[in-house]
Amino acid sequence: MNKMYAFIYPLIWLFMRIFHPWRVIGAENLPEGAAVLCGNHTTAGDPLYVVCALGRKRQVHVMAKEEIMRWPVVGWILKKAGIFGVKRGTADVAAVKEALRVLKSDERLLIFPEGTRVREGQTSEAHTGAAMFATRTGAPLVPVYIAPKKRLFRRTTVIFGQPYHPEFEGRKPSSNELQAIADDLMARIRALGELEK
Description:
By secondary structure, the chain is α/β, with parallel strands linked by helices. The protein has one domain: Glycerol-3-phosphate (1)-acyltransferase, CATH 3.40.1130.10. It has helices spanning 3-19, 46-54, 66-69, 74-80, 93-104, 129-137, 175-192, and strands at 22-25, 35-39, 60-65, 84-86, 108-111, 141-146, 156-160. The protein has seven helices and seven strands. The model has no long low-confidence stretch (mean pLDDT 92). The protein is globular. The protein has a seven-stranded mixed β-sheet, sandwiched between helices.
């Protein structure tokens, strides 16, 4: 258990419980051990909702944009807590290696396949990182839906879908296969939104 993560979790939990409470659907779907948790991304607070929905004992490594990791003090704390940055728009080899290390260490990884915040009603093409991590390590993909409408003091729903292993032919999927896996993943994430109603 990461000590810094365990230290800051109660602080995050208390803040979120007061100002941005949440409710969880599908917690029983969460597998033990390595998993690639993949969520839709509409607000900057989405990782916090997932972290709180997982609970203190289910620690997760979050792949965040590199800019956050440069913030004074905050970036240092996040790094110590197991969060790591990725340089968007480039082939960030260091971030890929860290993601693979996390999964091979039988730990959880949280990633947002769209790569940036996407407003409700808009769509964007999913990046293939999550698909690559899952096919390289054998870790299951877990679709996660975070309700896009968030209001102070009102509960936001977080839904965990069924974990699954993507299907592909051969030992190393082609770029087209990875994109197909990524597109299917986003369709599964969006479909979870129906459970909120």
